[in-house]
Amino acid sequence: MSELLNHLFNRLVQKIYSMFYGYGCTVNTCVCVCVCVCFVCSTFIIEKQPPQVLKTQTKFAATVRLLVGGKLNVHMNPPQVKATIISEQQAKALLKNENTRNDSSGEILNNNCVMEYHQTTGTLSAHFRNMSLKRIRRSDRRGAESVTEEKFTILFESQFSVGGNELVFQVKTLSLPVVVIVHGSQDNNATATVLWDNAFAEPGRVPFIVPDKVLWPQLCEALNMKYKAEVQSNRGLSEENLVFLAQKAFSSSSVNPEDYRNMTMTWSQFNRESLPGRNFTFWQWFDGVMELTKKHLKPHWNDGAILGFVNKQQAQDMLMSKPNGTFLLRFSDSEIGGITIAWVAENPNKAGERMVWNLMPYTTKDFSIRSLADRISDLNHLLFLYPDRPKDEVFSKYYTPPLSKAVDGYVKPQIKQVVPEFTTPNPDPAANPTYMDHAASPAVNQPHAYGLYPPIGDPMLDADGDFDLDDTMDVARHVEELLRRPMEGQWSGQQS
Ligand SMILES: *[C@@H]1O[C@H](CO)[C@@H](O)[C@H](O)[C@H]1NC(C)=O
Ligand SMILES: *[C@@H]1O[C@H](CO)[C@@H](O)[C@H](O)[C@H]1NC(C)=O
Ligand SMILES: *[C@@H]1O[C@H](CO)[C@@H](O)[C@H](O)[C@H]1NC(C)=O
Ligand SMILES: *[C@@H]1O[C@H](CO)[C@@H](O)[C@H](O)[C@H]1NC(C)=O
Ligand SMILES: *[C@@H]1O[C@H](CO)[C@@H](O)[C@H](O)[C@H]1NC(C)=O
Ligand SMILES: *[C@@H]1O[C@H](CO)[C@@H](O)[C@H](O)[C@H]1NC(C)=O
C-alpha cells in the first residue's frame, strides 16, 4: 500500500475517531477501507432538498455537499454530480444493492453539476440551479392509490478518486421522497402525501413505507407544525381548535380532549374518503383554511381576531349570550377555504326575539377584491368582535386609508360591500350613497332600522346559515364591476 494511501487512511481514521470517539476503531487496514468508504459516503449529503412536491416543466434547485471534500483535496479536480429521478421501487433496489444499472423514472434537464470549492468554509458542494423535470414515468397503478400518493426520490451520485486514481469513491445519496404533479390542482393532495411521510416515517425505513394509521395526538402535532409553518405564525392551533378538528375528523360531538387521545386516524380518513355529506376530504378542508389564512388573514389570526375553528352551533351558543351586533369569524364547514361572519341581531319578524345570522362565506376571490377588515368596516350592523371588543379597536388599523386626492383629474371610485337587509335605508334611493360614497366613511355605528327587514322566507338570508346569498352578492359584484370602469364624464373631460 502506498505511503499516500496510508497517510490518507490515517487522516480519515483520525477523523472517524474524533467523530465517533470511543467507538473502538482499530487500525486494521482491511476494516478501515470499508469504514472509510462508508464514512465518505455518509458525508455526501443534501444541503438543500429539492421541493417535495415537484411539478413537471417547472424550475427547481437543490444543493449537495461533500463534507470531507476539502480534506481529501478532491477540489483540485472537482467531481461532477448527476441527479436522476427514481421510483420507490428503484430506490428500494438501490439500497439493497440489487442492481447498479442506471435506472431512472423520468428525465431531468440540467441534471449535471460540477462541485465548487468554497475556500472560506472549506466546503465542496454542487448547486443545481436550473433543473426541471421534463418527463415522468409512473409505475402501474396499485389498487386505490392515486398519482399523488406515488413517491419518487432524486438520486444524486458522484465519483472521484484520491491519491492518483488509486482509490475511487462512488458516492450516492437520496433526497426526501418527492411527489410529482403535472397540474397545480394536484398540489393539495400531493402535500398531504408529503406531510404524512415527513411526520410519520420511521428512521431507517425501507423506502418509503409509512404507517397506515397514526394516533390522533400525533397527527395534531403534525397539523400544528404545518399550520404554523404555512401561515408563518407563532400562534398555532389551540386545544379547542384541535378538539374542533377531531370532531370534524371523527364526526364526533365530544368536547373532551381526553376522548380523542387514543383514537387513530387512517390515511384513508385523512385524505381519501370525503367527510360525511361533503365532496372533499379532511385534509382538503384543513389545507383550504391554511391557504386562506396565509394569503389574507394572517394579521387577524396573529391578533387572535379569528376564532375560526368553531362550528355553527357553538357560534350560535356563544353569540346568543352577547349584546346585539356582536360577531365572530369562523371557517366555513361547507366550503373549502371559506370564512364566514356570524352575528347576533334582533329577529325582524318577531319583535323581541334575537337570532344568529351567518353571512355567505368569503373566499380568496372575495378578499382579492376587498379585504376582510374593509368588509367588516362596511357592515355597520357589526359592532363588537366576540366577546366584547369594539370592532374598530381590533380592525381599524387594517382599514384601507381614505383615498388621496384625485390624480390627473381622475376621481378614484371605491368599492364597498352591503348586505341590503342590514343596510340603513337611505331616504333618497337615487343617491344610493352606500355604493357611491367617494370618501372613506369612518365606521360610524348607525342605528339599525330593524322595521324594514324583508318578509320572512327571503331566500338570501337564512338564520340557519347554510343558505344562499348568491343573488345579493351578484348584485354587489355587479356594482363592483361598474365602479371599476371610469365614469362617462371623466372620459369626456380629461383626455389630454
Ligand atoms: C447509463 O446512462 C448513460 C446515459 O444516461 C448511457 O450512456 C449508458 O450507456 C447507460 N449505462 C447502462 C449500463 O445502461
Ligand atoms: C435553464 O434551463 C432552461 C431549459 O433547459 C434553459 O432554456 C435556460 O437557458 C436555463 N437557464 C439558465 C440560467 O441556465
Ligand atoms: C387509552 O389507552 C390507555 C392504554 O391503552 C388506557 O389506559 C386508557 O384508559 C385509554 N383512554 C381512553 C380515554 O380510552
Ligand atoms: C385528490 O384526492 C381525492 C381523494 O383521493 C380525489 O378524490 C381527488 O380526485 C384528488 N384530486 C386531484 C385534483 O387529484
Ligand atoms: C364539490 O362540489 C362543488 C359543486 O357541488 C364543486 O364546485 C367543487 O369543485 C367540488 N369540490 C371538490 C373538491 O371536488
Ligand atoms: C337586543 O335586541 C332585543 C330585541 O329587540 C332586545 O330585546 C334586547 O334588549 C337587545 N339586547 C341588547 C343587549 O341590546
Automatic annotation (TrEMBL):
One of its GO terms (cellular component) is cytosol. It is found in: Cytoplasm; Nucleus. The keyword Transcription regulation applies. Gene3D superfamilies: EF-hand, SH2 domain, STAT transcription factor, DNA-binding domain. The chain crosses the membrane at residues 20-46. Keywords: Activator, Cytoplasm, DNA-binding, Membrane, Nucleus, Phosphoprotein, SH2 domain, Transcription, Transcription regulation, Transmembrane, Transmembrane helix. GO terms for biological process: anatomical structure morphogenesis; cell surface receptor signaling pathway; epithelium development. Coiled coil: none annotated. SMART domains: SH2. One of its GO terms (molecular function) is DNA-binding transcription factor activity. PROSITE patterns: SH2 (PS50001). Residues 301-402 form the SH2 domain. It comes from the Eukaryota. SUPFAM superfamilies: p53-like transcription factors (SSF49417), SH2 domain (SSF55550). PANTHER family: SIGNAL TRANSDUCER AND ACTIVATOR OF TRANSCRIPTION. Belongs to the transcription factor STAT family. This is Signal transducer and activator of transcription 5B-like.
